[in-house]
Amino acid sequence: MTTAANKSILSYFTWAFVVTVAGLALGAWLGWSMTGTIGGLATAFFICAVLAVLEISLSFDNAIVNANKLKDMTPAWQRRFLTWGIVIAVFGMRIVFPLAIVAIAAHIGPIEALMLAATEPSEYARIMNEAHLPIAAFGGTFLMMVGLNYFFDQEKDVHWIAALERQMSHFASIKGIEIAFVLVLILIFTSLLDAAEATTFLYSAIYGLLTFLAIELIGSLLDASQKTMSTAAKGGVGAFIYLEVLDASFSFDGVIGAFALTQNLFVIAIGLGIGAMYVRSMTIMLVEKGTLAEYRYLEHGAFYAILILSVIMYCQTLMHIPEVVTGLGGATLIGISFWSSVRYNRREKAEIQD
């Protein structure tokens, strides 16, 4: 049986490659069936490919954070997340979630929302774009709490940007400091919006904060009662919910940004779904090969990328920020943290040899 140690990196992406081929073929067929032209086929094919790359670039940090959480879960719950979780991620967040937003915003049923997406994509896209503010406020707040919760930790003893992270670890002794920081930022951005938008932003951001705290509470309750739980369930439910909401928060930006390329819900779902499969493959590789332990600053880069993404989502309520900035910013931070890890490993190896 092939072990994780001798599995090649490419072998982890086998299913992602299969889904890529199938997805691009489906996208091309969709373009042909809608237009009946080679140009329409090529356009749909190209947009699906671009959306897949967009999703991958936006989700490097998502894969790393998923792996960080998964390594502490039982094998049973790891399998559940990597099977059920990917179904929820691809179909729930890329198809059902946008339909639900339009249904709620337009006060119509889910079937009517689906028909609207199929027959009036421009109107569908308009409603989605109008819903961007509450989505950005909710997702930005949740992601900000995820990032701050990582750095405001008294037990954290590995620091990448040492001067900053030591201070954050020190101030973690102040109860609720990360919540206070987020609330202050919410108030600042609320003051920069007009009255109607400010109210929407405030409520959505508070809901994002409460969602994070509720999931933390569920995890704490599960930890406290784990003696009476079966081994397969220990910490699994709370971690599963946490990862699903985390994936949702990461997906908001990609789903909304996709409408800048196409207004066709089905093309968006195919492109982003291909990208989601690569995120799943990266997550499995990171867990099985122990990459997070081998590269000590990789997690740091991912959580810094999360914090930057959360601030960008807040700023998007005031101005348009291209998705390429978001994707490249996160990928750059992770790349720098990876290089820092490599340099650290080389220094350690050199000291041992000396």
Automatic annotation (TrEMBL):
Any stretches that span the bilayer, and where are they? 12-32, 38-60, 81-111, 131-152, 172-193, 205-224, 231-250, 256-280, 301-319, 325-342
Task: Kindly give the Pfam families that the UniProt entry links to this protein.
Answer: DUF475 (PF04332)
Which InterPro entries does the annotation name? DUF475
Write the record's keywords in alphabetical order, separated by commas: Membrane, Transmembrane, Transmembrane helix
Its domain of life reads: Bacteria
Q: Which NCBIfam families match?
A: PRK14013.1-3 (NF010613), PRK14013.2-2 (NF010616), PRK14013.2-6 (NF010620)
What is the name of this protein?
DUF475 domain-containing protein
